[in-house]
Fold:
Amino acid sequence: MALQKKKILARAFFNRPTLIVTRELIGKFLVRRVGKRKIAVMITETEAYDGFKDKASHAHRGQTPRNTPMFGEAGVCYVYFTYGMHWMLNIVTREKGYPAAVLIRGAGEHVGPARLTRGLSITKLLNGMPLAQKSGIWIEDRGIVINPRNVKRTPRVGVDSAGPVWGNKKYRFVLQQKRVKK
DNA sequence: TAAGTGATCTCT
DNA sequence: GAGATCACTTAA
Structure:
């Protein structure tokens, strides 16, 4: 058995073109530590929100108090509250001043962005926190190699109001799960 | 298919 | 301040 490589992803990983980061996060592990409990789940679904021009992005109308983390350094959490009950977890990409982030939509058994944050106790407290062990949330590369053929690219979810052009961009990546035969 | 839920943003 | 909107989930 070969040694398992386990590497915590640093800022440099996220300070790259958003779509590349979005794609490469599939198969990485999101790790959350709360007190003594540690949860690690493999990321299976992501979406990119890239730049001022992206009409589906919170940043397309400019900077506001809420979306400020998107304008900051890469490798930082952008967590916001919506629909009166759900938290959404994003990871900021690109350099300071360029608003972009990756929405983590699913990981491990948590399918759906709001279920994921509920399962991992992710709230506003993590907003603006860098991904690092000391923050209690980080991302590891555990050496799992994903076959690109098993990653599906589709339009993003819930962004129809962004119009046909931006609403149809294939900015969503989904790992095709193995089917369990009965 | 639609209700629930409340912060945030835009427009008065 | 008021009204619309919202990167969703759950129960039918």
Notes: The domain at 7-175 of chain A is CATH 3.10.300.10 (3-methyladenine DNA Glycosylase; Chain A). The two ends of chain A are 31 Å apart (CA to CA). The first strand of chain A starts at residue 7 and ends at 8.
